[in-house]
TrEMBL record:
Provenance organism: Cyanobium usitatum str. Tous
UniProt protein name: Proline--tRNA ligase
Cited NCBIfam families: PRK09194.1, proS_fam_II
Superkingdom classification of source: Bacteria
Gene3D superfamilies: Anticodon-binding domain, Bira Bifunctional Protein, Domain 2, YbaK/aminoacyl-tRNA synthetase-associated domain
Amino acid sequence: MRVSRLMLVTLRDDPSEAEIPSHKLLLRAGYIRRVASGIYAYLPLMWRVLQKVSRVVREEMDGTGALETLLPQLQPAELWQRSGRWAGYTAGEGIMFHLEDRQGRELGLGPTHEEVITYLATDLLRSYRQLPVNLYQIQSKFRDEIRPRFGLMRGREFIMKDAYSFHANEESLRQTYAAMDGAYRRIFARCGLRAVAVEADSGAIGGSASQEFMVTAEAGEDLILASSDGTYAANQERAVSLAADPISLPSGPRAGGEGEPFATPGQSSIEDLCAGHGIEPCQTVKVLMLLARFEDQSAQPLLVSLRGDQQLNEVKLANAVTARCSAEHGALLDIAPITKEAAASEGLLPLPFGFMGPHLADGLLSNSGHWTKHFLRLADRTAAELSSFVCGANSTDNHLVGAAWGSLCPCPESLDLRAAQPGDRCQHDPSQQLQASRGIEVGHIFQLGRKYSEALEARFTNEAGSEEALWMGCYGIGVSRLAQAAVEQHHDGNGICWPVSIAPFEVIVVAANWAEAEQSGLAEQLYLRLQEAGVDVLLDDRSERAGVKFKDADLIGIPWRVVVGRGAADGLVELVERSSCSKRDLPAIELLETLL
Ligand code: ATP
Ligand code: MG
Ligand code: MG
Ligand code: MG
């Protein structure tokens, strides 16, 4: 490809719409353009990157025996009604775009495909002999995200690879899940990404085991908690969801160790609890607030929010004070996911706490982002009252650093906060400190179990001749998010530094002075030779100044730059490696063997 024919439009300045480096660079280097909020055009350079990522994904998926397919994006409401997800995905803060056809039938634009694939399985998978089978597709997904942002990182239309596996038993599901784990690790490594696997919350998708792959980056929206020795890591959403699982308290509310317990023995309602603290319970809001405290001095208190409309009335936290409340008692605070600006304009004050998020109340939002974005609606309480009420709320953004391992320990068997008791510590290494870092979720694998197959009656005949529901797994990779995450990890002050495996072009040949016949002639020759050798090569044939061309080459991030300059007369070229900026002169005839 010739740069003169590439419709290359680069920008000198950072576009104001972009906040993080990868978003700025993809706009500046002419990879993407915004069409509407969360809706982007992938320009030719970007499309090449996405195709390369897809190729890696295909090779690894095919390598595990998975079958590529393509499912409809328009999905009938009926299937989602049968799985029980239609209302949650379409009403209120649901993320599914939905519409009515000319016959008045409701349809949704696929945010994910469990329903459709399970529906197909009811028809196609009849016998254990056909199992296991794993089907995947790479296509656009639609999610009306509450807060689309950071370019391709959180789009409302984005490209996903999603796969769904079907099994005769749980053991077979575990095997495929492990195979997907392996394939994912290879995919991210081949795409040049530093990714870590973390224990994850299954969110609105449901199911039992689930693991996410996080590209570590400052711009990440997720918070990863890891043991200081690196042997264990989890998404903080996981910790929260464990803490928020409803459980029965054996003997009502009780005080929790030293400090300022919120609940004391004998108090059985939220009114009692509030009275004990001199607080009027607010009628307009429906949240139970639970103050909790870690054992450790340096630890932060926990706040768990629950909506009154959820039947989730009994909660206990490890190392925490426990409290009990029933839905009819109303609650103290309303927690709504809104932006800082919106909060300010509504006269709401930010009051950040540890461990909180609307996903505790609403599974649909479980993955919608990070708790720092949430604010307490103060209703008829004053900030002062609240802050004295909520002891020790942390005003910095990182509530989890330094939290004790008492409740989050690297030993999976003691991770379950429900089982933990106040004072518990990591059995294996009490000195382990919880570390927090940011990550971008690029992949997520789930053991779904039989949730969808039971709901949609997808059954098969087992070896014994009787019918049972299929076991299922599902496996997603955000292809477009992955591509941008690669830029987030690989860039410098001059632009993008693509890993060769997913770069739009591997080599760019630049003639310093195109008007010099010797230079342009040799450049053309090398371009041809590289093309013949199967290299993805770009020829900068523009009559721009050399400096302009070098700047563009750096900005768009082609891994190798071959400069044909004055040395052309002696058959010499300069080879520049984008990532290290290292340069060396070499005879043009040696170029191919050096690069290949
Ligand atoms: P998030 O927590 O970031 O909202 P998710 O958990 O909702 O993501 P999944 O349902 O697990 O996402 O989808 C599989 C993959 O699709 C994710 O791991 C992520 O890489 C990608 N993905 C999800 N939502 C988006 C989006 N809005 N834009 C781009 N990629 C996305
Ligand atoms: Mg998520
Ligand atoms: Mg999400
Ligand atoms: Mg996910």
